[in-house]
Amino acid sequence: MDWQDPLRSLAPISQHPAKKSTVLSELSVISDQELASLKVNVKLDRFGLGSARHNRAASILGYFYQFLEDEGRKILAREILLWIEDKDEDKLFELANHLVAAILLPFKASGGKAPAPVSLPSIFLDQDADIEEAMASIEPSGRQQAKLKQLCLRRDGYQCIYSGYFDKVSVKRRKVTLPSTASTGTTEYAHIIPFALGSFDDRQAVETENKAVIWWTLYRYFPGLRGKIDTASINQLENVVTLFDAVHTEFGDFDLTFWPQENALHSYETTLAMNTFAIHPKSGSSVIQLQQHDTSVPMPDPEYFKVHAIISRILEVSGLGSEIDQFLEAAAEAAENLDPNGSSDLGCLLSLKMLTRTWV
């Protein structure tokens, strides 16, 4: 299967500055009351008065501090306060750069991108046994993706969890009976934590190291992910949902989010970055309830939706989502325009290939 990893061209991500600090190697737990008394935002505001660069770093750190869940916020607070009190500005600049390079950029670059499941030979295949036989001649990676989509469809009732649109191929194969008032469309299986964070070529040293750094940082600020998901388990059913193709695009762009409701299992508050999106939630309101149509297939993990939503909020409110989009588009366009005869400046080529950028 021809899978082009969107993160393969990332520049080497520098290590988190806490890696150099014995003080921060083991972080003690603090209470909510202690956290409030630390006045992190006030101290960040003062730090931001130093220069335009100080203000940029303070803004990035402030947005992460604002939107992270409690455990991640407390860890970030310890780091910020230590380096502000030590007047170690370089560590704060490093931290802000690291959070963009190891979290925001990889998620934004890889959201909505995954290998497409192989198409089955005929739309007239009706029985699972026929499908299994048809799949036997397809390479293992293709079979894995196709099976994942089929299990995801079965659990989600062969319809988009957001819009309720039924998967038209499944309707044609008579996997599901289409209600009289229902609509059909092309659905896709969507990874909540992007697929590219799991797929990597271990023969590529930079790619391997980058993904190790990304996961270390994710576990640090989103500790709820520890023990649940990693590079080897990115394809778990708890990390995929069925979405109509246009809905998948919004979700992959971090313009559509699902926030778990505290007192209702598998209930989510959906939020759209732009009210102009023409497809509305199937429930008629912003709150949707996910249904498990096949109890043998596990439901999506709410923790993964939380991580996606938090990153979306930081990208939107900070303006970094648009900035990263422009950066990626410019890099892709410049790479396409490089002289095919090889006369382009080698330094330019390497810079474009590695997507080198300092954010602060």
TrEMBL record:
Residues 186-258 form the HNH nuclease domain. InterPro entries: HNH_nuc. This is HNH nuclease domain-containing protein. It comes from Cercophora newfieldiana. The lineage of its organism: Eukaryota, Fungi, Dikarya, Ascomycota, Pezizomycotina.
